[in-house]
Design goal:
The chain is mainly beta. The protein has one helix at residues 4-13; strands spanning 25-30, 33-38, 41-46, 51-54, 63-67, 73-78, 85-90, 97-98, 106-111, 117-121, 132-136, 143-145, 153-156, 162-167, 187-192, 200-201, 210-216, 219-224, 231-236. It has a four-stranded antiparallel β-sheet. The mean pLDDT is 88.
Length: 238
């Protein structure tokens, strides 16, 4: 997952792509290319050319677009075969390849530096909305769980040593309440994937419900309502 995902929507709002009114959601950016959802399909917008083109025309809705680190592939969520699943396709369009087989809720989270896809799913046996993180190789379809409990969202650093994940938060239930300060406030944790240690809470002193952790360089970015409304915050990885 990239910091640009948080910033690309504001870029789209100010561009000529909005010559006509509409709903533009789930943007992601890679260099001069933005992929977003509109009219139930994926669209590609070239910042330099200031033009958009439709990437998909299927009856199903495509969302949660995320461009691979090399800029050649876009991952997204669609319900082509019933349940929401993760798919990948060439950035210029083409045949979509299904890469998850969870038969449950799925949300694309981002890519690792090695070109593997991270997604969140409720397929694990347990209470409703019991989310977990999984990593899948789009080429071989081999997948594995990230060994943390109740991980609603997450991102992995460039060296694949640490996962920064969210527990709880209103995004679990889809609740639209504002300034929630109950026991299910969103929290961000750090887990060393090869250390065999317990996860460490990073936002214990932060007075806000947090979500969407994104690692970029030596910073961890996230969305928090600590100031009353959702805004982008950051902290050092240490």
């Amino acid at each position: 997952m990239k910091l640009g995902k948080l910033l690309s929507l504001s870029l789209l709002v100010s561009s000529s792509v909005f010559a006509q009114k509409g709903y533009y959601r789930s943007p992601d950016i890679h260099k001069d290319t933005v992929v977003f959802t509109a009219e139930g399909d994926l669209w590609l917008y070239d910042i330099k050319e200031k033009q958009s083109k439709r990437l998909t025309t299927n009856p199903a809705e495509e969302s949660y677009a995320d461009i691979s680190p090399d800029g050649k592939t876009v991952a997204f969520v669609a319900n082509y075969e019933g349940a929401n699943e993760a798919y990948v396709m060439p950035i210029d369009g083409g045949v979509a390849k299904r890469v998850s087989f969870e038969n449950s809720n799925v949300r694309v989270q981002g890519w690792t530096a090695k070109g593997e896809l991270i997604f969140a799913t409720t397929s694990r046996i347990g209470p409703t909305n019991n989310w977990s993180l999984k990593i899948v190789n789009p080429r071989t379809l081999n997948s594995r769980y990230v060994e943390v409990a109740d991980a609603v969202e997450g991102d992995i650093d460039s060296k694949a040593n640490n996962v920064y994940f969210t527990q709880f938060g209103l995004q679990v239930s889809g609740d639209n309440a504002k300034v929630y300060r109950g026991g299910a406030m969103g929290e961000i944790w750090q887990f060393k994937m090869d250390g065999g240690e317990e996860a460490v809470l990073l936002t214990g002193d932060h007075d806000g419900s947090v979500r969407q952790p994104i690692v970029s360089g030596k910073k961890l970015y996230f969305i928090s309502d600590a100031s009353g409304n959702d805004n982008v915050w950051s902290m050092s990885l240490d």
